[in-house]
Amino acid sequence: LLALMTLAASTVLAEVHSTAAYDNVYDLPGLPTLDLACSNGVAGLSSTLGFDRFSQVLHYPLVGAVEKLEGWGSLSCRKCFRQSGQSINIVTVDQGDTGFVLSLAALDQLTGGQGQVLGRVDVRYEEIGGWECGL
């Protein structure tokens, strides 16, 4: 995958290696956010932003789960990550088991339309400011 573009002035953390896969559940714009680990709580999509459906998330369909999210009500909810490849920005909305689990639309953008064929890919990512994901 292509090298990650760095920002001249941002609050980025160190780049980390991981993997990204997809789950079609994140491609459903009508999915209630209450079905997600990031539904409510101090950083919840519904409780803090009033988002009741995926389609309301400003960076949709560039959303997904991440293993570093500790579970319901995590302060890692709504974090924004830039991933390598086509250099896409992802909003965390749920807890995952391994690496990132994205919408197929997001994985397709990351892999040039090869998400379903590749299934899981190696990525490099860094946390970036929420404004870069429309938060």
From TrEMBL:
The UniProt record lists the keyword Signal: yes
One cellular-component annotation, GO: extracellular region
Annotated compartments: Secreted
Keywords on record: Secreted, Signal
Keyword Secreted found: yes
UniProt cross-references to InterPro entries, sorted A to Z: Cerato-platanin (IPR010829), RlpA-like_sf (IPR036908)
Any single Pfam family the record assigns to this protein: Cerato-platanin
Main location group: secreted
Signal peptide: 1-21
Family the entry assigns: Belongs to the cerato-platanin family.
Protein name: Allergenic cerato-platanin Asp F13
Species of provenance: Choiromyces venosus 120613-1
